[in-house]
């Protein structure tokens, strides 16, 4: 099963990339599939691509679940709490 993780865009880069924050971890992702995304937006990230812009409430609900079940993320992410 694959899971898309919410991330907040912190900076738009050149050539279709953006720096995003996922629970304190920053990465670069492609925003080619979400060209309307802006800094401050939350996006769902899957396999290095932002696949959908989502609202902050939905993002926070999903991030809360990831914090409770970090194995869902499939990566080592910092867990608050």
Question: What this model shows, in words?
Answer:
The structure is a single chain. Helix content is 16%, strand content 38%. Strand 4 and strand 5 (49-54) form a beta hairpin. The protein has one helix at residues 56-68, and strands at 5-12, 17-22, 25-30, 42-46, 49-54. Strands 3-2-1-4-5 form a five-stranded antiparallel β-sheet, covered by helices on one side. It has 81 residues and is an alpha+beta fold.
Question: What is shown here, in short?
Answer:
The chain has 81 residues and is an alpha+beta fold.
Shape: globular
Can you tell me the residue ranges where pLDDT is under 50 for at least 5 consecutive residues?
Answer: none
Our count of helices gives 1
**Kindly, what is the distance between the CA atoms of the first and last residues, rounded to a whole number of angstroms?**
27 Å
**Sheet bearing the most strands, described?**
5 strands, antiparallel
Quote the beta fraction: 35-45%
- Let me know the average pLDDT: 87
Rg, Å, rounded? 12 Å
Strand order of the largest sheet: 3-2-1-4-5
Question: Which structural category do the helix and sheet elements fall into?
Answer: alpha+beta
SSE order: EEEEEH
The residue fraction in helices comes out at 10-25%
Question: What are the defining features of this structure?
Answer:
1 helix; 81 residues; alpha+beta; single chain; 38% strand
């Amino acid at each position: 099963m694959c899971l898309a993780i919410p991330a907040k865009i912190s900076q738009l880069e050149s050539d279709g990339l953006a720096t995003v924050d996922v629970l304190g971890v920053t990465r670069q992702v492609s925003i080619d599939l979400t060209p309307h995304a802006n800094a401050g937006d939350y996006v769902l990230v899957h396999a290095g691509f932002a696949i959908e812009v989502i609202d902050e409430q939905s993002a926070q609900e999903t991030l809360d679940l990831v914090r409770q079940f970090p194995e869902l993320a499939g990566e080592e992410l910092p867990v608050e709490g």
